Amino acid sequence: METKIFKIENAKSNVNWIGRKVTGAHDGTIAIKDGEFIFTDGKLSGGNVVIDTTSIVILDVKDPATNAQFAGHLASDDFFSLDKFKTATLKITSAVATEDDYVVTGNLTIKDITHPIQFKLTVDVNGDTLSATGKIVVDRTKYNMKFRSGNFFTNLGDTLIYNEFDLDVNVIANLS
């Protein structure tokens, strides 16, 4: 069995997020701190990704004061509790190759709460460089982010925030 490890290039990788509410959506970026993909006999077999949750940037709110207020709210205990939890992690536990991509299963940990997650990941290995793209849909309420969730509060009207947010992942990694 041949094992290869591809280390994520933080500066060349990005994660875009989108959170939706009744009246629209917000979007931004968040940085990858560290990570790797493990290949066994030419197939994705494992890995992990560490996200720097303190790096959350909001792109759609242009007014500096409103942006700062929103960023502060995302940092609060209503959402990511950034004073206590500086990172989130994804540990890949299995990857099943399909015709076009992989179906990846893993454990996602946010705020020290871990739940299984599954998503599709397109992976291309060209020599010593790996590129991977995928969309991960996260139910924030599983990670104690219940603010304005219809599952926990009633009569929210147009202040309701949908439970799921999307992470669009674009990763470049190099053989280590």
TrEMBL record:
Lipid/polyisoprenoid-binding YceI-like domain span: 5-174
Pfam families assigned to the protein according to its UniProt record, in alphabetical order: YceI
Signal peptide: none
Name of the protein in its database record: YceI family protein
UniProt organism field: Flavobacterium agri
